[in-house]
Amino acid sequence: MNCTVRLGGNVDAEVQKFNITVAEAVVLRSIHGSDAVVKIERVVPEKRDNTPHRSEYEHLRTTFGPSKEKLLQTLFPGSLTGNPKLPVTFEEGGFQDEDEAAPEPDAKSRSPDLQPAMA
Length: 119
What we know:
Number of helices: 4
Strand content: 5-15%
Number of domains: 1
Mean pLDDT: 84
Number of strands: 3
């Protein structure tokens, strides 16, 4: 997936992330805030991330370093036994592909107070 990360949730401090896994996006959201991972897009047609869990967990440990080890263990149960459970779909990670987001309601289905004023 590709996304934008708002560092510390700050809209003035955005960083683009390319080809990351859902699990990495979960870690970034946990570090930077619940609304910090935005502009999410799927880069592969598959709906599941097929990266092996153990190798992805090791990648996350290397990427985020020893200071985030406790966070990784909390986010991904089973990591202490060598069998981490990582999210493999957008839904499991708590994300929605912005290309698949619900469309804007048309004028007929909007609340009357949201209707454009008639001239």
